[in-house]
Amino acid sequence: MAYAATLRYIIISSTTIYNRCGLCELTRYVNVDEKNGAELFYYFIESEDDPRRDPLLLWLTGGDHCTVFSGLAFEIGPVKFIREPYNGSVPRLKYNPYSWTKAANIIFVDSPVGAGFSFSQDTKGYAVGDVSSSLQLKIFLYKWFEGHPDFLANPFYVGGDSYGGKIVPYLVQKITEDIEAQVRPALNLKGYLVGNPVTGESIDTDSRVPYAHGFGIISDQLYEATLEHCKGESYSNPTNMICDQLLKRVHELLGECSKPHILYKKCFYVSPGQNDESPRRIILKKEIGGLKRPPPRPPMDCQNYVNYLSYFWANSMATRDALGIKKGSKDEWVRCHDGDLPYSKDIKSSIKYHRNVTLKGYRALVYRPG
């Protein structure tokens, strides 16, 4: 299948959906919990170069319970939104010439159950956590490869960022254990990659202080005073008053920056909250009618304006028809659920899984997105 034709499947303009029926080949569900009817939704984008030889990458996003569409449309995928005022029509997508799909096949999965278009018929299926959702991803992979045996020989990698970076090494370890036990089908696992990954360790928060100093957000004097009075303590749990006051000042200064990227304009976070009934949202509800949790509208020059557009794109019936979304499976799509779905953070630290996998000789890349 030509890459240009594949890409047309997922580009939706304000008036036309290209190759409507063919899109179903690229977006599907996989049942990962027969008892509760839990299904993970995925987007599969073939490599632009040589799909039968290029690496295959399973991609997970942050969260928990954030849609992988963020990775597809805002980060590494082949499409991105056209930044234009929302006028009530379906927001438009365009080709991203810097997509990782220029050199790799990528499976973008909405995980855990409840994220994006993934759903459960029984509400009990939403009660998952780090371990159970990782094991469901393993079920997903084996079922996917059974349906796509032509890709079994491709070099296989698992990747993710932010909170997804906590799940990746655990999932990879489980795959290596299956490989050693000669479980079939045998996956051609080569390694994994994680961007800005959560580990569960105190370094996740403690590193913010030297980071802020290194990028000039806090002064040399404030940084040195913090080192002196906190004396190696966890910055997330100071035990003396001076350290506590210094860290409050550090966080005040960090709060003046855009947390996702310090060089961007600071804008409010575009994701609906569980109980957010701000005047801005109440007005927007009146504008769009039946949708329940529309995000607040940021200025167009904010980097996260495209997050705002994604809400209307994904909740359009035209989009849902094109993607093959099951009727009644998802009342309303949101980019992140922000704590309104149950989730157990039962992997306290991912460090040992990094160690175990790399000692087995698998390749690893840990990076900070630019």
From TrEMBL:
<dbReference type="Pfam" id="PF00450">
    <property type="entry name" value="Peptidase_S10"/>
</dbReference>
<dbReference type="InterPro" id="IPR029058">
    <property type="entry name" value="AB_hydrolase_fold"/>
</dbReference>
<dbReference type="GO" id="GO:0006508">
    <property type="term" value="P:proteolysis"/>
</dbReference>
<protein>
    <recommendedName>
        <fullName>Serine carboxypeptidase-like 19</fullName>
    </recommendedName>
</protein>
<dbReference type="InterPro" id="IPR001563">
    <property type="entry name" value="Peptidase_S10"/>
</dbReference>
<dbReference type="GO" id="GO:0004185">
    <property type="term" value="F:serine-type carboxypeptidase activity"/>
</dbReference>
<comment type="similarity">
    <text>Belongs to the peptidase S10 family.</text>
</comment>
